[in-house]
């Protein structure tokens, strides 16, 4: 399928990790991610078989439980169900990912795999003409932000302001395979 570029915005939270967690949940609840297991019913059955093998191995290779994945997950998938948690969606997506912010699981100071890095004030000012850009300023620069994504499975964060107060955090990234 190849990777996908994506972006989303969430309400401002002082801690980027809290904003990331909230935004990931919003994306999950809205269903705005790739549901690879829905592509073809025959693939759903094949994926259920593959995942059943992983469940048998467990996290530690000895049949232990997989955190965040209900024991009935395979039956739920095979019966046409949708993931009930972010962890279950990631488990079902496997190495293909969800092509969304859900694939980004941590905050880092610099870009790194599966993490979001905040854009520095100087970079924000150079990109948007101000260190305190409005939501419209940020959205007008989404394509420019996408060009700054050097590696799949990474994301950047930029805060938007209204009347000098932070109001939103935008996440721009690329993920999926």
Structural description of this entry:
The structure is a single chain. By secondary structure, this protein is an alpha/beta fold. 37% of the residues lie in helices and 19% in strands. It folds into two domains: 4-30 and 101-175, no CATH class; 36-95, no CATH class. Strands 1-5-4-3-2 form a five-stranded mixed β-sheet. The protein starts with a strand and ends with a strand. Residues 59-64 have low confidence and may be disordered.
Characteristics:
37% helix; 5 strands; alpha/beta; 177 residues
List the helices and strands and how they pair.
Layout lengths: L3 E8 L4 H15 L10 H17 L15 H6 L7 H8 L12 E2 L7 E4 L2 H8 L6 H6 L1 H6 L6 E9 L2 E11 L2
Parallel strand pairs: 2-3, 3-4
Antiparallel strand pairs: 1-5, 4-5
- What is the N-to-C succession of helices and strands? EHHHHEEHHHEE
Cα-atom radius of gyration: 18 Å
Report the strand count: 5
Largest beta-sheet details: 5 strands, mixed
Strand percentage lies at 15-25%
- Described by the principal axes of the CA atoms, the overall outline is elongated
Question: Residue share in helices?
Answer: 25-40%
Q: Compute the separation of the termini in Å.
A: 6 Å
Overall mean pLDDT stands at: 85
Protein structure class: alpha/beta
Q: How would you write the strand order of the largest sheet?
A: 1-5-4-3-2
Number of domains: 2
Give the number of helices. 7
Poorly predicted runs = 59-64
């Amino acid at each position: 399928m190849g990777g996908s570029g994506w972006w989303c915005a969430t309400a401002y939270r002082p801690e980027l990790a809290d904003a990331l967690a909230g935004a990931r949940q919003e994306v999950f609840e809205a269903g705005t991610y790739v549901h690879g297991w829905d592509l073809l019913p025959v693939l759903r059955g094949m994926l259920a078989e593959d995942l059943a093998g992983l469940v048998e191995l467990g996290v530690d290779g000895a049949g232990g439980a997989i955190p965040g994945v209900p024991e009935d997950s395979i039956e739920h998938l095979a019966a046409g169900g949708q993931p009930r948690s972010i962890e279950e969606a990631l488990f079902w997506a496997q190495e293909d990912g969800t092509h969304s912010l859900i694939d980004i699981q941590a905050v880092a100071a610099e870009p790194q795999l599966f993490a979001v890095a905040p854009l520095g004030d100087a970079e924000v000012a150079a990109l948007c003409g101000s260190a305190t850009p409005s939501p419209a300023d940020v959205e007008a620069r989404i394509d420019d932000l996408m060009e700054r994504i050097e590696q799949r499975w990474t994301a950047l964060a930029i805060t938007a302001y209204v009347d000098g107060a932070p109001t939103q955090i935008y996440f721009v990234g690329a993920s999926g395979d």
